Amino acid sequence: MKIWSPVVKALKLLSILLMTGALYAYAMFQGGYVSWFLFYSVLVIIVFNAVFILYPLRLIEVERRIDRSLLSYNETVKVELIMKKKIPFPFIFLSIQDEVPYGLEGLGQIPGTIFFFAGAKKLYYSYEIRGSKRGEYYFSTLHLQAGDLFGFFQKERTVELPETLTVLPRLRPLQQWNAAAVNDQLEANPAPAKPLEETFSVAGVREYIPGDKMTSIDWKVSARVAKLVTKEFESQDGKGYMVVLENNKSNELTEKFEGAVEFSASIIDYCYKQDIPAGFTLSAKDDVRLEEKSKKSHFQRIYRELARVQQETTLPTGTVPLAKRFSGRSLVYISSCLTLQRLDELQRLAGNGNKLVICYFTNETNNTLEKERLQRLKRQGAAIYLIQLKGLGYEVTS
What we know:
Helices cover 32% and strands 32% of the residues. It is an alpha/beta fold. It folds into 3 domains: 5-54; 57-167, Immunoglobulin-like, CATH 2.60.40.10; 179-201 and 236-397, Rossmann fold (3-Layer(aba) Sandwich). The strands form 4 sheets. It has a 7-stranded mixed beta sheet, with helices on both faces. The protein has a 5-stranded mixed beta sheet with strand order 2-9-8-4-6.
């Protein structure tokens, strides 16, 4: 088809010239006002088409503007497409079409439009999209198309405009913690279990420093000592907690993994609001590691990593065991699928004296051996939390 394209264009041009010649011959032989009026009217259109053929679409500058590059879950954003003509020209029609990455939800608007008789030097079009699924999305290509009055000639141009839009995971509320439920599942004689607030327990207070969050101020102690003091949370090394997300695929379903990602984001959000230093890393990827900090920019980096995290089907070669990677660290380990190998590694971590909090998504496939290993981890001092999605929030039992 591409071979015949120049031939087709030449035939179209020849047909226009023949039509012009025929009209001229008609005007010469027929004479009169109507004949010459018809000839000159068609001649104007033909000259217009000739200028259109000579006008390159590269003289149109294209721009894509996105209000912001970071979206919360289910948040909408406006995308504006702008065309600027370096040399004004009244196109019969001029269309622009954007390619929206898969996973972003439209709001009933087409990501493109057609401008008829577009004589303005600047043309604008906007549409809205919703971030209904976490991820990092890449905009790239814009398509321009223009044509003449007869439809004989059409021009197309593809413009590469790379843009990145990040949709953060959904944040769900952590509902009331039920201490008895998980004890009934893990042991015959239920014992009182610590809630989350005690797991991330307060080690002491210090004098308030400008920039500390209001939620971390201990108002009772502040009233007693007549000055503002801030709560400090304890951890094994005094630096906070490292949140570890299990992203090894194994037999794990995608829906369960997405639930673990959203729960990780909710835990990180809890740490941020309570001014608890937190880090983040992945079990199957050593190169993603954000050390424990409590600044807002640090937590934003964690949210971005959670937005782009993917399951790993195979472990990288030379992966360091958990006991070596996190020796002497305080860990919050989040998983929706604990293999026996992973349970053994967690047992070694707990046996080394690490402060260990395990957040585990329960399911119907949990077998007796898994429950026995979790019970053994609990006896070694690990805090076990079973997670279930109930309505819009998580039911956490400890």
